[in-house]
Amino acid sequence: MMPSSEDDLSRDLYSIPSSSSWFQWDEIHETERRELPEFFDGSAASRNLRVYKEYRDFIINKFREDPSRRLTFTEVRKSLIGDVGTLHKVFLFLERWGLINFGISGGRPRQPEEVGPRVVVEEAGAGVQVVPASSKLASGRSAVAATAAGAGETGFRLPPLSSYSDVFGDWAPGKGPVCAVCGNEGVSGRHEPLIEGGFVVCLKCSKNRNDIEGKSADDNSGHADGNANHATGAWTDAETLLLLEAVLKHGDDWDLIAQHVRTKSRIDCIARLIQLPFGDHMLGTFSGKYDAKNSGNQPTNSKAIQHASSELLPEPKTDGHGHDDVKEKVAEESTPVHPLKRRHIPSIANATDSLMKQVALLSTAAGPHVAAAAAEAAVKALCNEKPCAWKVFDIDEDESRKKLKSFPTKNEPKSAVKVEDQEVEMDKQTDAPELPQKNFSATAFQTKAAIATALGAAAARAKLLADQEEREMELLMASIIEAQMRKIQYKIKHFKELEFIMEKEYTLMQQMKESLLDKWVEVIQQIFQAGIPRWKDHAFPKSLWNNGS
Amino acid sequence: MKSLPLGASKAPIKFRMPTAENLIPIRLDIEIDGQRYKDAFTWNPNDPDSEVVSFAKRTVKDLKLPPTFMTQIAQSIQTQLAEFRSYEGQDMHIKEKIVPIKIDLRVNNTVIRDQFLWDVSNFETDPEEFARTLCEDLNIEDPEVGPAIAVAIREQLYEVATQSVSSARETRVGKKGRRGIENVTNSKTGNSALDLLKLFGNKGSVIRKRKEWYLYEPIVDILSNEEVGALDAREELNARLKKKLDEKEDSFQTRYSHG
């Protein structure tokens, strides 16, 4: 259910309190001038605008290197030159405004924002270390803000980068139920009932969904009812927000999450998270504000966005009615007379829209057969546990088969069908909770089966990856061994050559020695023949003999 | 800074501790009949002198020290207060000045070594708060460490402040010898202030070079009880040796000057 790690690598999102949305990498805001006047009045050589900016940027970047842990002043001051008192002031200023250590539990408790937990999502370069890079990004962003947002509202930044879809179609916006873009105006009108339902719901204006805007109003009210059913009393908006924040931050560590939420127990948190609908309305906060803002001049704007986004994402496949929401399906299933549907194949980035979609994605990744096996196994296990569950799945099976039949004939390309198969199964399970005619136990079984399937699919995928890794490791190992072997062979060859040379030298030496000996013998013979007494010339031949032997 | 409404460089101000609260560091190290009492704390020089005596009384009572300590404690505090007051009323010539502060302390079982820069001309600083933050950040549990760090900072600031009082210079030099033991922890205050223009001018970055980070990073060691015992013994020995040496030197000096 958590955002996968590969998503995390591709982007960096930081949440800061909306009250600090004035922050800009390349500008000094009024607030900063007011709160830290000593840097801007030129009273001291050690404090000026440039120094302040360097302090600020460094501290923020330092924090963002790992936003999950608390950045301490002691850690910061070792890397900055300057008076610790002044540094501490800057540090406290940034901390107070939530630009660092925002939402970090532990340490000194921080008082919650009275304004309500609004969250601004800010984008920064992946290598936050380098300040120029981030400032470049910022300027790029502001430029976009001017062009992309027809409404031209302040604070709405929609970069035309292709990464936009990765960034905002993803999890992070879900951090805060109220999005910054929504701002004040976003909370009004049709969004209000949704807040009561337990979370602030903004509709996703993801590029491939602009066409549902017309329907969004109806959708919203529909969801609100559904949500109301889910909300089990005691959870407030703020608590839910905390929960979501904690989940994003701590992942599966429920103890930490419970600590973060504080007012709820571990079990409560888990139960709550399970109850949360992981549909578009949870995750689409960012885009929702866009909807809200543009509801007035919808036609032009949505068109523009559609245009901008069409190159980036696969076009949704429509079948007549042009709705692709899961909720649509819900409605459809409860009223079986309405067979038409619109679906799209989720891209990786959008797959986090819902639990079920992620399951579907995982299963596509693992291969349809593996996922089917996983699903089957999950259902079987569940049936073993409670035989009555089988009935539920029996019915569903039929339905899904029916659906399946209808798809290929409609408008899906062949390749998509397999995926559909998985998805349909998942979908019907998602839908189940909202079906009035099914009893609760059936829903529970289906949810269980879905979760089990998800786990199964994930496991299958993991297995695949692991296998691949192993193969790769083996391959590398083999190549290493081969290289070593080759090295040794080279060495042996070299030694052989050396030996050969040595031998040659040796024989040469022997030959020379022999010829020398011969010569000496000759010389001595000549001496004798000449009649010179041997003892008179003792030293000369003696030394020669010694050398020669 | 706001704290210097007229600007530090223009109007000299009267001598005081260059911190938000005018608290002066007091260090006591008294040994009577083999019993030793060491302590360090801050004192508000505006408190009436009667406080000193009652403080001494309370301390002796709380720590169950022999009553002879009472007068010694009171006397030591009075001496240090008097030294501070001798500077009071004089003008301080502190321009913008950033000095490195070095901490090398052992408090009970905690050894802490640290270095950082301190703006002496900023009269809004708070060594106590700094020390508290430091201890919080490093999860130092011993409650005595924070105040000890604060006092060490104050001692060094005090020294810098006295240097800025023109008349104090000679006396300070003369005193250096006698204050040997006390100066163990803050030996290097004399090092000069940093070249601000070089550090904060247009060229250099205020982000420290990575390889220098370790120099300005606190290092904390928690010692075992045996190590503490050994250190205590060694320190005591050193102190005694030094004392003897000092005495010898003193007697030599007196003899020399008399002769």
TrEMBL record, chain A:
Name the domain of life this protein comes from.
Eukaryota
Q: Which SUPFAM superfamilies match?
A: Homeodomain-like
Q: What are the coiled-coil residue ranges? A: 459-486
Q: Where do Basic and acidic residues bias regions lie?
A: 314-332, 411-430
Q: Which InterPro entries match?
A: Homeodomain-like_sf (IPR009057), Myb_dom (IPR017930), SANT/Myb (IPR001005), SANT_dom (IPR017884), SMARCC_C (IPR032451), SWIRM (IPR007526), WH-like_DNA-bd_sf (IPR036388)
Keyword line: Coiled coil, DNA-binding, Nucleus, Transcription, Transcription regulation
* Name this polypeptide is given: SWI/SNF complex subunit SWI3A isoform X1
Tell me what gene encodes this. LOC105038790
UniProtKB/TrEMBL annotation, chain B:
Q: Which InterPro entries match?
A: SNF5
Keyword Chaperone assigned to the entry: answer is no
Compartmental location: Nucleus
One GO term (biological process): chromatin remodeling
Indicate the principal place this protein occupies in or around the cell: nucleus
Q: Which GO terms describe its cellular component?
A: nuclear chromosome
Q: Which Pfam families match?
A: SNF5 (PF04855)
Which keywords label this protein? Answer: Nucleus, Transcription, Transcription regulation
**Family per similarity comment:** Belongs to the SNF5 family.
- PANTHER family reported for this sequence: SNF5
Name under which the protein is recorded: Chromatin structure-remodeling complex protein BSH
Which species is this record about? Elaeis guineensis var. tenera
